[in-house]
Amino acid sequence: MTDPAIRLSGATIGYGDVAIVRDADLTVRRGEAVAVLGSNGSGKTTLSRGLLGLATVLGGTVEVLGAPVGRLRERGRVGYVPQRHTVSGAMPATVREVVGVGRLPRLGLFGRPGARDRAAVAEAVDAVGLADRLADPVAALSGGQQRRVLVARALAAEPELLVMDEPTAGVDAASQAALATVLARVAAAGTTLLVVTHETGPLAGVLTRAVVVDSGRLTYDGPLAGAGAAGPDCHHPDEAAQPPVRGYRLDQPRPAPDAVRLRDGSR
Amino acid sequence: MELLEYGFMQRALVASLMVGLVAPAVGVFLVQRRLSLLGDGLGHVALTGVGVGVLTSSAPVGTALVAAVLGAVLIELVRARGRTSGDVALAVLFYGGIAGGVVLLSLAPRGQATNLDAYLFGAITTTTAADVAVFAVISVVVLAVVGLLGRRLYAVSDDEEYARAVGLPVLPLNVVLAALVASTVVLSMRVVGLLLISALMILPSAVAQLVGRSFRSTLYLACGVGVVVSVAGTAGSYYTGTPSGGTIVLLAIALFLVVTAGVALRDATARRRHGRQVEVHAAHPHEHGEGCGHRPVPHGDHVDYDHDGHLHAPHRTGTGTHYDEHSEHAVVPPVGRDRP
């Protein structure tokens, strides 16, 4: 268990032969809770997809739980919450069925879920506060609840590393708070968290370290508190002095919500 | 019954029973994967296999099976490479398969029975005892694989990206599913014909998804619907003298329309009842919120408010906020489907 959870060294990640994230160095120790911050198109999602084998490693090394990515011997050690707002596929499915999928990687090729697996599914659903909805069709749940079902699916695998892509985007405040509680518990249990997000506000109590991605490069790596002020826009210090431009700009600054509040002086 | 006295009708009914059971069991995964037309593409490829079979005087069912499975594996590999979209790959299969079949069948020597219509539109009454045996083997194999790998096929069909991220063998599972589709295509070839092949995979699933709650119950329901329309359509075609394939498909579509209308009606009544509930509190302009004086009760993704001995669950409608009643003190029992 001494291997770091994530180790990137000179890693270049992209799709096909187009590099999106270039020359990234990052080591995440077991049990850390890391936010990956950056504006839209900065490459933060590509970085996380590279860790999951969904984007191609074009150069350098990307190791997850001590093994090169894509060659994980033990399946089910990595949990993933994709950037999707809803679960519902074309066919109806209950919460239990969707979350049950999370256990499959642990069952080998033909294994059937046993009592232990059913208990893990029930625990995961309980952890996200949907225990009373276990037998309900997912389509009957609200958007925020469906996101929590996806979190439960990842938790059901009892992962050592949990990668989440924008878990709080488009989720109401109550669901965000519920999610933060769940993640705090998961992190306390020793699971390594990597959360891709552009708003750290709701999860500020859980995430301790932040990595900022800007135009495919890691530009900040340090405590989360420093990343709000030293966010993606800190590289253009003169920008704040310029008169605000109306309408949409290609380089639209997207400061973290914290930074906005600090500037307003409302906190 | 009169129609059971004929051997050809007995075989036809047994064949339609197997097709009705197997086709939806595979079809639900295609619908889930939003790849409903894959069956059609493979049906066209199977025609090339039939052509090869007729030309080489071997059993067309066998060569069709080989051609369809090869086509299925090919299309999955093309999709996995990601160079050509699944859409274009399907189109190439469609045209190549049917063109190959037509050309090969036209090359068949004179005097050989090359009844193109029988393959395109189905000719269930020509099913031989040997065909029934082959169909039974295919049915058992397909159902066994679905039983064994169903959960994994569901996982891959539902969210391929997630399945890949957590390390499920996505490509092999997709190839297995495609091979299952190919086998089902060959199985249904005689009953509904290659042109209507997807109908028996997709329509029962479409009916079942309207009323199913879980994936498992939807799967069973689809198989049930498949068996009913398949057997009823075959029996009906005996009395009306119409082709079995078209009769089965029209029956399935009729069932789909009836169930759609029924579900729409049920939802409309549920909404009206829900609307009447609002009137309980029409004379009640108070909007709940933090510090409104009523005890907040967190409930799932929203907060209820304890109000005069019952819980108010605020939810937004087109006309503003209104309050559902829930809890055991509810004045009006809650409407199941509309619970926010």
Question: What brief labels describe this structure?
Answer:
heterodimer, A: about 270 residues, alpha/beta, Rossmann fold, 2 domains, six-stranded mixed β-sheet, four-stranded antiparallel β-sheet, 7 helices, 10 strands, about 25% strand, disordered C terminus, B: about 350 residues, alpha+beta, ABC transporter involved in vitamin B12 uptake, BtuC, 11 helices, about 70% helix, globular
Kindly state the number of beta strands of chain B.
4
The quaternary organization reads as: heterodimer
CATH topology of the largest domain in chain B: ABC transporter involved in vitamin B12 uptake, BtuC
Largest sheet of chain B: 4 strands, antiparallel
Helix and strand content put the structural class of chain A at alpha/beta
What is the overall shape of chain B?
Answer: globular
Strand content of chain A: 15-25%
Distance from N terminus to C terminus of chain B (CA atoms, Å) equals: 52 Å
What is the fourth-level CATH superfamily of the largest domain in chain A? P-loop containing nucleotide triphosphate hydrolases
What secondary-structure arrangement, pairings included, does this model have?
The complex is a heterodimer of chains A (267) and B (340).
Chain A (H helix, E strand, L loop, with lengths): L5 E10 L2 E11 L4 E5 L6 H9 L3 E9 L2 E2 L9 E4 L13 H6 L14 H13 L15 H14 L4 E5 L7 H16 L3 E5 L12 E6 L2 E7 H6 L27 H8 L3
Helix pairs in contact in A: 3-4, 4-5
Chain B lengths: L6 H26 L5 H18 L4 H22 L4 H21 L9 H6 L7 H30 L1 H6 L4 H23 L4 H15 L3 H26 L3 H37 L14 E5 L2 E6 L2 E8 L2 E7 L14
Overview of the molecule:
The complex is a heterodimer of chains A (267) and B (340). Chain A is α/β, with parallel strands linked by helices. Chain A has helices at residues 44-52, 95-100, 115-127, 143-156, 173-188, 224-229, 257-264; strands at residues 6-15, 18-28, 33-37, 56-64, 67-68, 78-81, 161-165, 192-196, 209-214, 217-223. Chain A has a six-stranded mixed sheet with strand order 6-7-8-3-9-10, sandwiched between helices. A four-stranded antiparallel sheet of chain A has the order 2-1-4-5, with helices on one face. The radius of gyration of chain A is 19 Å and the shape is globular. The termini of chain A are far apart. Mean pLDDT of chain A is 78; it is low at 229-267. Chain B has a four-stranded antiparallel sheet with strand order 1-2-3-4. Chain B has helices spanning 7-32, 38-55, 60-81, 86-106, 116-121, 129-158, 160-165, 170-192, 197-211, 215-240, 244-280, and strands at 295-299, 302-307, 310-317, 320-326. Chain B is globular and about 90 Å long. Chain B is of the alpha+beta class and 340 residues long. In chain B, helix 1 (7-32) runs parallel beside helix 6 (129-158), helix 3 (60-81) packs antiparallel against helix 8 (170-192) and helix 6 runs antiparallel to helix 8. Chain B has two domains: 2-198, ABC transporter involved in vitamin B12 uptake, BtuC (Orthogonal Bundle), CATH 1.10.3470; 281-338, no CATH class. In chain B, a hairpin with a 2-residue loop joins strand 2 (302-307) and strand 3 (310-317). In chain B, 46% of the residues are buried. At the A-B interface, strand 6, helix 2, helix 4 and helix 5 of A face helix 1, helix 6, helix 7 and helix 10 of B.
